[in-house]
Design brief:
Layout (H helix, E strand, L loop, with lengths): L1 H17 L4 E5 L29 H20 L2 E7 L1 E3 L9 H11 L9 E6 H13 L7 E4 L2 E4 H12 L13 H8 L6 H6 L10 H6 L6 H12 L6
Parallel strand pairs: 1-2, 2-5, 3-4
Antiparallel strand pairs: 4-6
Helix pairs in contact: 1-2, 3-9, 5-9
């Protein structure tokens, strides 16, 4: 995962240089900012994920690829702008959707009998698509990183939005919370829970606002994004 992420990024940048492109906008991830640190943050665009910490391959791949992009851009004389989205939600285009939308599906189908203590940034896919267009054409974006997120929410907060806004369609959404110590103990014997347990109780809050201040970008509120996500997924749920 790591080598293809880095090498693929560099291939695109070389092609841009050879074609005489002036500015490249790269979509990276908040994974290249907020991981491997002590403390909850908030973490801003000046922060880099700690590659010496025990982080997963996906997080490391995003960080290594983005660092390589910045190094190459300087050497090649390219203008580079990087977008760093948090978790991406929003309306699904079909049944083959990203893992972040799987969280909403699991809540709606009742496959999570409890709510772990998890928090994460919520970015609307429509806003994440719009931000690079602004970054391509605004000279203030050159040489900058921009966190793309509409807010920071908890699993319990998202469950509450679903129950309050979707009525009967959210009847299976859990209401009980599970203490982190208990989740980690259960995960020792229930393998599918290990991913949930790993991030339970961990805080990686993004510092928001730079893209709005510099580029005038205006993300959708978290509640609207979650509701639109859930309604788009209803046709694909296992009833």
């Amino acid at each position: 995962m790591i080598v293809p992420a880095r090498d693929g990024t560099l291939r695109v940048l070389r092609a841009a240089r050879d074609a005489g492109v002036r500015r490249v906008v790269l979509t990276s991830s908040f994974a290249a900012i907020g991981y491997g640190h002590d403390g909850p943050g908030p973490y801003d665009e000046a922060t880099w994920t700690n590659l010496d910490a025990p982080i997963g391959a996906y997080v490391k791949s995003k960080t290594v690829a983005e660092r390589a992009a910045w190094k190459y851009a300087v050497a090649a004389g390219l203008e580079l702008t990087v977008i760093n989205p948090t978790g991406i939600f929003g309306p699904a285009l079909g049944p083959d959707f990203a893992s972040s939308l799987g969280v909403i599906t699991a809540l709606l189908e009742g496959r999570l009998p409890f709510l772990p203590d998890q928090r994460f940034g919520v970015a609307d896919v429509r806003d994440v698509a719009a931000l690079p267009l602004v970054a391509m054409t605004d000279d203030r974006a050159a040489g900058q990183r921009f966190i793309a997120s509409g807010g920071y929410s908890s699993m319990a907060g998202i469950a509450g939005i679903l129950r309050s806004r979707l009525g009967a369609d959210a009847a299976k959404v859990p209401t009980r919370r599970i203490p982190t110590w208990l989740l980690k103990a259960v995960a020792l014997v229930v393998r599918p829970l290990r991913a949930l347990a790993r991030d339970a109780g961990v805080r990686r809050e993004p510092r928001l606002g730079k893209a709005t201040r510099v580029l005038g970008w205006s993300p959708r509120p978290v509640e609207g994004t979650i509701v639109d996500t859930a309604r788009s997924l209803l046709p694909y749920l296992s009833r």
